[in-house]
UniProtKB/TrEMBL annotation:
This is ATP synthase complex subunit 8. It is a single-pass membrane protein. The gene is ATP8. It is found in: Mitochondrion membrane. Its main location: mitochondrion. It comes from Butorides striata (Green-backed heron). The lineage of its organism: Eukaryota, Metazoa, Chordata, Craniata, Vertebrata.
Length: 55
């Protein structure tokens, strides 16, 4: 069963995570969000409970 041999797959996993951590992740984290979160307080509306006809 060749899929149980970790020799080639471990190297591929290690290289892909190294590539992701060192090259791709800093580029993704450098982007700024288009809508930064606001510090405005949210208005909470008062809701009334539903009145069921059979109670």
């Amino acid at each position: 069963m060749p899929q149980l041999n970790p020799n080639p797959w471990f190297l591929i996993l290690l290289m892909s995570w190294t590539t992701y951590s060192l090259i791709i992740q800093p580029k993704l984290l450098a982007f700024t969000t288009t809508n930064p979160p606001s510090t405005k307080l949210k208005m909470t509306s008062k809701t009334t409970p539903w009145t069921w006809p059979w109670t």
